[in-house]
Amino acid sequence: MSHPGRGHGHSHNLSEIPAVLSPFARWFVIVTLSVIGVGVVIGAAVLWPSDSEHTIPMQFRSADGGSIQTVDAHVVDLQRADCLNPLTGTVQDSAVFQIEGAAPEGPCVAATAQIDSGDDTGRHTLLEIPTNRAQAGSGPGSVAPSAEQLDQPQAGQPSLTVGDKIRLAVVPGPDGNTRYTFFDFQRTVPTIIWALLFVAAVVLVAAWRGLRSIIGLVFAFLVLGVFTLPAILDGKSPVAVAVVSSAAILFVVLYLAHGVSLRTSSALLGTLMSLVMAGVLSWLAIETMHLTGLSGDQTVNLQVYQSSISISGLLLAGFIIGTLGVLNDVTITQASAAFELAAAGEPTRLATFRAAMRVGRDHIASTVYTLVFAYAGSALPLLLLFSVAQQPFGSLVTTDALAVELARSFVGGIAIALSVPLTTVIAAALARPAGAAPIGTESSASPPPAASPPSGGRHSRPDA
Predict the structure, then answer these.
(1) Would you give the DSSP letter of residue 121?
(2) For 223-237, what is each residue's pLDDT tens digit?
(3) Strand, helix or coil at 14?
(4) Which of 90, 131, 133 is nearest to 113 (CA)?
(5) pTM greater than the 0.85 cutoff
(6) How far apart are CA 391 and CA 408, in angstroms?
(7) φ, ψ at 91 (rounded to 5°)
(8) If DSSP codes are grouped into helix, strand and coil, which group holds residue 132?
(9) Residues near 304 by beta carbon (within 8 Å), at least 6 away in sequence
(10) For residue range 362-404, what is the model confidence (pLDDT) as tens digits?
(11) From CA 461, how far away is CA 435, in angstroms rounded?
């Protein structure tokens, strides 16, 4: 039976024991991360893109071969009329166009837009949006539009209302005068509003740390825009560029958001090692599943206009970058859990590892769901299209488009599962548990009672 005096001495000693870090583990992590950091700097210098010109893809090219020029505009009037109005795209000072064949059930929507920028600021142009009524007929196997859909714009055409802010593409007309066509909606103001709401929510809840994470996110996008994309377009290895970019982002983002400490360093090392594993797994998945990445129009267009880019390498690079966020989430949680459990009184490193792994198992279960459903959500239109294809389920899920998303989910899930024990081992080695206090830290403030043998106090702390 424990004596009250001895119990008090044990509790007092534990409260006085600092979280002393293992010198060997500490220096191993510091040296390893330093070597990796130097490698990232050298890799960025070797892979840094040049300022060479690149061919503009056809869909982004204007009639003169340059990039598409756009201006701002807003819709001031909508009318139903016959299609093929000769005034479409032309410019005039008045907002009233001569609409031929105007009728409440006309097959086209004649939209008058006022130009807000460029050489024709303040003037007006006419846009023509065909509805389903203008459709000559239905193709083989297609479904005819219902009565409710007859007045809706055809597939791929914009649905405009008065007051909509839009962007117009500048195109040369057959008579040499400038003409305008619909290019896209203006989204600058809504995007800024949503971005501010996002920043406000993160900062209000996470305070200064949340602001630092936002700054880290901005840095990540700068790396992608300034280094990653230009280097790949320059013909550099997509895999090498992805690895260097990911490592650079992790170094800055983790230390910026969570501070410079060995706790953060353990998460960083665990993330980098997990990222290497994810790269190897991605390569194996691409090779064994014979993934081409050519099911998407963007990839095909890129291969046509930038033939020097390795499509398989680009697919692998996408796998690697895609695992960054989720691995970062899992590893920082595991590192924090291990350090907190050690500081809370776990007696040994093994006990710290086991306790942190109990947290990690719950994290794996929830994060795998997040990862898979995120990929499923992005492929939802494709899933709907395939659901009406009347093909066997096995053949549908093994098409290149769906197989790529499945491979992303599989690789991400395996990387998450492996990153948890890996990071937990590193963190548990760094965080010295409370029960492993250095010799000589025991307090003598509560000596054992006289009836107890001299060694009784030590027997009450077998882990000292």
Answers:
(1) T
(2) 999 999 889 888 888
(3) helix
(4) 90
(5) no
(6) 23
(7) -120, 140
(8) helix
(9) 57
(10) 888 888 777 777 767 776 776 676 666 666 666 666 777 778 8
(11) 8
